[in-house]
Design goal:
With 342 residues, this protein is an alpha+beta fold. The chain folds into three domains: 162 residues, 2-Layer Sandwich (Nucleotidyltransferase, domain 5), CATH 3.30.420; 89 residues, 2-Layer Sandwich (Nucleotidyltransferase, domain 5); 70 residues, Actin, Chain A, domain 4 (Alpha-Beta Complex). The chain has a six-stranded mixed β-sheet, with helices on both faces. Strands 13-12-11-17-18 form a five-stranded mixed β-sheet, sandwiched between helices. A hairpin with a 5-residue loop joins strand 4 and strand 5. The longest helix is centred in the middle third of the chain and has 16 residues.
């Protein structure tokens, strides 16, 4: 009886628990929170000093007694206690009343192991969830962009996040075939930083590398190539220095991780049953996730696969919108998720 009373006053939430960003969808309200998956803790402890935007501003800028960490790596929980603290912070930010225990739907990579699933479940339960549903990210993204996943026809989604790239073919509420590749936005940032270190003897931080990728990055030659000045530390002298790099150089620097993503898409298509392959000739591929915003990535994938490629209207919110839609359709939720109650 008490559980039903608490449930009646709780607002169910959906969480896109991403390596780079966490998005929270509240039932009947939409996406209400979008913050970096970063936590600042006191060095040598799990004492939380800042979470989200406040913590990200500290990345690479903290004194010795403060450490800014990303508790998720490659789309999964790398630090259980810090992940729990981050989830608790986000839940309390939405629900001011601490006695509320919401039902939570969390999107996880399709290649997640049973141990990793347990870590996500336990983190959410410890953060205050009364019931936890896990759904594979590609299924959530497909629902979020409006693909008819209930039909007996192929729907292909490629969700390029911060830690993983999820490639899946979906039909009749299920994943016909999926691949979870631990190459995504983080590896693109790393490729940019490695290029500047190797070609220019310039050391830059991960925030700077991400900014260069967003501003200058592309996956396909552009009509107008641009250049930008990058500030960092000279590896030889150890002093601050500025170098100029072009968008062509940045594109070439990212070719290896981009090639791995394209190879994963091709490998998925090769495993697709013939009847469903025929559907994809007309329906094509839908790109979601932050990586879908990289200029020219739709043209690159189309050139390599020969299929039409569409970028989701709001690729960053696709997974969060998907888990949100499931909150309103409990029968649908039961068909596509795994549940744990606390």
């Amino acid at each position: 009886m008490i559980g039903k009373f608490i449930g009646a006053f709780s607002s169910d939430i959906g969480i896109d628990l991403g390596t780079a960003n966490t998005l929270v969808y509240v039932r009947d309200q939409g996406v209400v929170l979008r913050e970096p998956s970063v936590v600042a803790v006191k060095s040598g402890t799990n004492f939380v000093l800042a979470v989200g935007d406040d913590a990200k501003r500290m990345l690479g800028r903290t004194p010795g007694n403060i450490v800014a960490v990303r508790p998720l790596r490659d789309g999964v929980v790398a630090d259980y206690e810090v992940t729990e603290a981050m989830l608790r912070h986000f839940i309390r930010k939405i629900h001011r009343r601490r006695w509320i225990r919401p039902r939570i739907v969390i999107a996880v990579p399709s290649g997640i192991t049973e141990v990793e699933k347990r870590a996500v479940n336990e983190s959410a339960a410890a953060a205050g969830a009364r019931e936890v549903h896990l759904i594979e990210e590609p299924m959530a993204a497909a629902i979020g962009v409006g693909l008819p996943v209930h039909e007996a026809a192929a729907n292909m989604i490629v969700d390029i996040g911060g830690g993983t790239t999820e490639v899946a073919i979906i039909s009749l509420y299920g994943l016909v075939y999926s691949r979870s590749l631990r190459v995504a936005g983080d590896e693109l940032d790393e490729a940019v930083a490695n290029y500047l270190r190797r070609a220019c003897n310039l050391m830059i931080g991960e925030r700077t590398a991400e900014e260069i990728k967003i501003r200058m990055g592309s996956a396909f030659p552009q009509e107008k190539e641009t250049s930008v000045e990058v500030k960092g530390r000279d590896l030889v002298s150890g002093l601050p220095r500025t170098v100029k790099v072009t968008s062509t150089e940045i594109r070439e620097a990212m070719m290896e991780p981009l090639g791995a993503i394209v190879d994963s898409i091709r490998a998925t298509l090769e495993r697709c049953p013939p009847e469903l392959s025929a559907d994809l000739v007309d329906r094509g591929i839908v790109l979601a996730g932050g990586g879908a915003l990289l200029k020219g990535i739709d043209r690159l994938v189309s050139e390599e696969t020969g299929l039409p490629v569409h970028v989701a209207e709001d690729p960053l919110s696709a997974v969060a919108e998907g888990v949100g839609k499931l909150l309103d359709e409990l029968d649908f939720l039961k068909k596509v998720t795994r549940t744990a109650r606390y």
